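Chapter summary example.
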Amino acid sequence: MAESKDEPNGQTAVANYVASLSNDLAGMARRNGLDTLGYLLEMVQLEAESQIRHNGPNGRGS
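The structure predicted for these 62 residues follows.
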């Protein structure tokens, strides 16, 4: 992913990617008994989703 903060959707795109990836990783961790790691990854997902809402659809704030 070569997008930067200055590109129109850079922050939103990165936050979307982090939310998606952390969701997948949290599921893997939980399924394998790594509950604390799963919890932390879920918190990462929530923070990424919060940034998406804060940045708005164009990544520059709403």
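To summarize the output: The chain has one domain: 10-54.
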